[in-house]
Amino acid sequence: MNDSIQPVGGGGIHPVHAFLLAASVPLFLGGLFSDLAYSSSYEIQWTNFASWLIAGALVFAGLALAWAFIDLLRADRAWRGRPLVYFFLLLAAWILGFVNALVHAKDAWAKMPEALILSLIVSLLILGAAWLGFATLRRGDAR
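Below the sequence we write its predicted structure tokens.
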């Protein structure tokens, strides 16, 4: 029984790239949960939390996006399918996350429900990107 993690196809993602990607997921999700908390309580501090969480997520996602772009340039032409989809999912998450950060700069009453909807979409995109990014690693071969 082989329990080591082995790369599939493209060789997997670098551990630092994995850290950057994994760090952005809970920050975007925290922004979504903060928006949900604000929509149910109307406590202004929740929007401040969401703004800071989204800003932190954009930093990590931006670095992961840069790393994904470099990996895309270095990828073998025959194996560009998954890295290309991963890159565009991460790019869409970052762009919509940036728009979400701009929406969160509005007044607390003016940003809802737009901020909540954008946070939900960005969270789904970053979860999809993380799933696709980490799907290149699997536990040993099934025999």
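Strands lie at 5-7, 137-139.
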